[in-house]
Write a structure and sequence with these properties.
Layout (H helix, E strand, L loop, with lengths): L1 H20 L7 H21 L1 H4 L3 H8 L7 H9 L14 E6 L5 H16 L3 E6 L4 H14 L4 E4 L4 H13 L3 E5 L10 E4 L2 H18 L12 E6 L5 H16 L3 E7 L6 H15 L5 E4 L2 H18 L7 E4 L5 H12 L8 E5 L4 E2 L2 H7 L3 H11 L5 E2 L1 H16 L12 E3 L2 E5 L4 E4 L13
Helix pairs in contact: 1-2, 6-15, 6-16, 7-8, 9-10, 11-12
């Protein structure tokens, strides 16, 4: 009965407001109210014939009259805790996996995902790569496409924005598609699993490697009037892991007694090398005493290093007195430059790095014992990628963790990663004069203050 009264009032209000706007013929209003009044009387007579139906329990009436936004206490607590998960995930049985990347221009990232694809192909899956070209909304669209396609059973996403992806990823899980995140760890909802790097630690360690080199290398580095070394930082704030890393880079510099920040630029993206080259050139011209450079990733480090080489040649200086380090180091060209600099500081400016991933594993029984059902596929992929290397390198091992998460979620024999858990990458940092830092899963996070 209350619902009909509410309807009458609502209709009267709508027509009254519409009449004020002059867009509705109000001559029909009396006729409508009369009809609704008739319906109300009919319902009243039905209620009189069945009084028991009118006497609803007090708690039911209270629930009916409660405002819609007042959810039950349990549900409200779940919402506040951000515990949005798909309970009892059921795989849809489809054997196509999509790798949704922010870019296919980063060599190490592609290796990770191709290694995952190799493991899953060995289990009968079809592997497909999708390139968002730096656009977070494109990742959302790809996952919507995967759901609509109906033949996708798993998604790996190197998430650019976990917040933006929340709704579509929960829809994918509801559709029976397993979802793993690389480099991201959502707190407001759950996925099938994550391979996560504490990016803030890579930022902190890269700066510490630079500071240690400046203090202990014996290089000819000018200082400011108060005895500090000038340093330039290449940062990136458009994705969450970039925010954590960049905050740690800047925060560690600001807390140092020996460093002073003179430039913060950004080079990450499709033209990273060229942009970094140009940015470093500008810094060198504006701050000729700046000899220390922190790069976001290897492409940016190589751009900065080549800019330094050109600057030194033009000005009669030595690259032995310059330091560049990125916060990731699996690009083969970059690692070759670092090894050359270890042998001869004048070879180039790459003098250190921070990076992440498991330690390399030599081929053979030990690797087979660690990698289990994935070993044969990973060994074959690794040998094709680096025929002369005697080991399976870190990016390939990271790819195996992603495959482990997805295949475990889909119930594949030989895979048993706990659903919804996170695997944390080991982080290492070095420089050419002996600095070394290592962080492993389970250790306290020394850069936790920058993860907000």
């Amino acid at each position: 009965m209350k619902k009909i009264v509410a309807i009458v009032l609502a209709v009267m209000m709508v027509f009254t407001l519409a009449a004020c706007g002059g867009s509705v013929d109000t001559s029909k209003l009396d006729e409508i109210i009369t009809t609704l009044d008739s319906i109300q009387k009919t319902l009243d007579s039905m209620n009189a014939a069945a009084p028991a139906a009118e006497e609803a329990p007090a708690e039911e009436e209270a629930a009916e009259e409660a405002p819609a936004e007042e959810a039950p206490a349990e549900e409200a607590a779940e919402e506040e805790a951000g515990d949005k998960i798909v309970v009892d995930f059921q795989w849809n049985g489809q054997k196509e996996v999509w790798s949704v990347l922010p870019t296919t221009g980063a060599e190490g990232l592609v290796w990770i995902n191709d290694a995952m694809g190799a493991v899953m192909e060995a289990q009968g899956w079809t592997y497909v790569k999708k390139d968002a070209q730096g656009d977070p909304t494109a990742q959302v669209q790809f996952i919507e496409d995967a759901i609509a396609a109906g033949n996708v059973g798993a998604i790996m996403c190197a998430a650019m924005s976990v917040e933006l992806l929340q709704d579509v990823v929960l829809d994918a899980l509801e559709a029976g598609i397993a979802v793993a995140y690389l480099g991201a760890e959502p707190t407001a909802y759950g996925v099938s699993g994550c391979v996560y790097t504490a990016y803030e630690i890579t930022g902190m360690y890269a700066v510490q490697a630079a500071e240690d080199w400046a203090l202990n290398s014996g290089a000819d580095i000018p200082t400011t009037a108060d005895g500090k070394f000038e340093i330039a930082a290449d940062t990136y704030y458009d994705i969450q892991d970039g925010v954590y890393r960049s905050r740690a880079i800047i925060g560690t510099i600001e807390k140092s007694d020996n460093l002073v920040l003179v430039s913060e630029t950004s080079s990450y993206g499709q033209d990273a090398y060229t942009t970094a080259y140009n940015n470093a050139t500008d810094v060198l011209n504006a701050h000729p005493d700046c000899h220390l450079f922190i790069a976001y990733e290897p492409e940016e480090a190589m751009g900065a290093a080549d800019a330094i080489a050109a600057y030194c040649e033009d000005n009669g200086l030595s690259v032995a007195d310059y330091f560049v380090a990125p916060c990731y180091a699996e690009d083969t060209t970059f690692t070759g430059m670092y090894e050359a600099s270890v042998a001869d500081p004048a070879a180039n400016a790459i003098k250190g790095y921070a990076t992440y991933g498991d330690a390399p594993i030599p081929y053979g029984d030990d690797a087979a014992a660690v990698l289990g059902a994935s070993y044969d596929a990973l060994a074959e992929f690794s040998q094709q990628l680096q025929p002369e290397a005697p080991v399976i390198i870190p990016p390939i091992l990271t790819g195996e963790h992603l495959a482990d998460i997805l295949l475990s979620a889909c119930g594949t024999e030989g895979y048993d990663f706990p659903y919804g858990e996170t695997y944390y990458d080991t982080i290492t940092a070095v420089n050419t004069v002996g600095f070394e830092q290592v962080w492993s899963m389970g250790d306290p996070n020394p850069a936790a203050e920058y993860k907000f």
